[in-house]
Amino acid sequence: MELEIISPDKKIFSGEAKFIIVPGSDGLIGILNNHAPLIASLKKGVVKVTDKSSQTTNFEINGGVVEVLKNKVIVLAE
Predict the structure, then answer these.
(1) How far is Cα 75 from Cα 66, in angstroms, rounded to an integer?
(2) Which among 8, 23, 55, 58 would be 20 to 30 A from 42, CA to CA?
(3) What domains, with CATH codes, occur in the chain?
C-alpha cells in the first residue's frame, strides 16, 4: 500500500509499505493492505513502517490525523 507522512513544513516520507502502526488516541492502530476505510486522530508517539523487504523505519510525531482509503494511507503529522 502507498504511505505518505506529511508535516506542516514538508513531506517526511512517501513510498510503499507492507505494515504500518500508528499511535491512535485510544491505542495503537495496525494497518495492512486492503484495510477498511478509516479516519482517526493520533497522539504523540512513533509511526512504525515496515516495507516490502521487512525493514522497519520509525518516525516520531507529536500527534495528527491518519486517513486510510483504497490502499493509500496519509498521516498528517504535527
Answers:
(1) 4
(2) 55
(3) 2-77 (2.60.15.10)
pLDDT of 8 reads: 93
% of the chain at pLDDT higher than 90: 97
How many of the other CB atoms lie within 10 Å of CB of 45? 17
